[in-house]
Predict the 3D structure of the following.
Amino acid sequence: MPVRHLACLALATLALLAGPARAQAPSDPRPHACPSEVPADARCFTGEDGLGGFYWIALPANWQPATGVLVVHAHGGPADTGPARFDRGEEDLKRWAVTVRAGYAWVASTYRRGGYGVTMAAEDSERARRVFVKHFGPPRRTLLHGQSYGAGVASKAAELYGTVDGPNGPTAGPYDGVLLTSGVIGGGTRAYDFRLDLRVVYQYVCQNHPRAGEPSYPLWQGLPLDAKLTRAELANRVDECTGVRKPAAQRSEQQKANLATIVNVVRIPERSLIGHLNWATWLFRDLTQLRLGNRNPFDNSRVRYQGSADDAALNAGVLRYSADPVAAAELARDSDPQGTVRMPVLSMHAIHDPTAFVELQSAYREIVERAGNGDKLVQVFSDEAEHSYLGEAQYPALFTALLNWVDRQDKPTPASVAALCRGYEATYGPGCRIVPDYRSPPLASRVAPR
């Protein structure tokens, strides 16, 4: 059944961001040993997706399509920038074994390659879903779960596949509901601005990425393609300038001042500094040079930075860049949601997430409300300071709440999700940290407007 792609207007962008790939038929699922984290009586399968990626499937014992629920998982990152890795799927299944423990079938794509490409990853996730349906039957319900960067993928997939062409016109697509956790959402044009800010502020303070004497390059490039810098070497440079890997008492006064300037201006916690610089180096290199034709989608030309000991000197001294409008438009077409969701969307985000700012939830909420679909979005927040995995009992509670919304039109509230969570603690352990009355602040309160 042909799917009505809302992205058909962006085929040129898609070709650039996805890269060349000659589609072949996906291979049939082959039995594979399940990771130990998955229940012992579950069955696992793997295969190739025909585009260079791999898929992983896990089936709980006694799962039947007529009564069963399938969760299509879109993973986070993108940390890898090379070819797809088979074991990436196993890593995701280990982390999200709670889904199978809760009785849901699970399928995920590794995506056809590493690096950036939101629409590409959405297509690959849908391709994995179709493999599952072909070989194991259409489930009673299908939920789409996106984690971190994968939440952006899932929000895009929800729009791309929200309807399908039927004999009497458009009808509902394959996904009944969407769960977004720790989401990097709101689109690539907004989610990564602060990492350009980090690069220019870091370079103003530390002057070692690049060092004097190394080839210079515009920082939005991330790193020249032929550069040999490693992540370990970059971490050493960051530590040399800021002492971030040392206890505070062992840092020099200059290191303390340098670190304070960077984290206060860019508004990131110390412990995530190196990680964010990694993304602003290798992910930026992939995105700008390999996906956008060596063009810059980011702009800090008029940003006013605040929080240093001398903001006037900082603003006069940081490097400034203007976005290439074509690159910015291509990134927007690939990654920015339009809010045209046709199914229930439930999200959860840690209030103190060190990687994906909680304020990104506000950006997504504004997009969905502007499209007139605010009634289809419920956002839940937890009093946690992690990103990759939150209190485990919260996940089965979220899935149950989403299914109740889909099946019974019982729209959840943060308080009702919290109550469900408490009921799951006996099985999944303590970890319910939901704050029912919390509402995320505007993104502009965290990331300097531009």
In short: Residues 118-136 form the longest helix (19 residues). Residues 6-188+342-445 form a domain with the Rossmann fold fold (CATH 3.40.50.1820). Confidence is low (pLDDT under 50) at residues 1-15. The two ends are 43 Å apart (CA to CA).
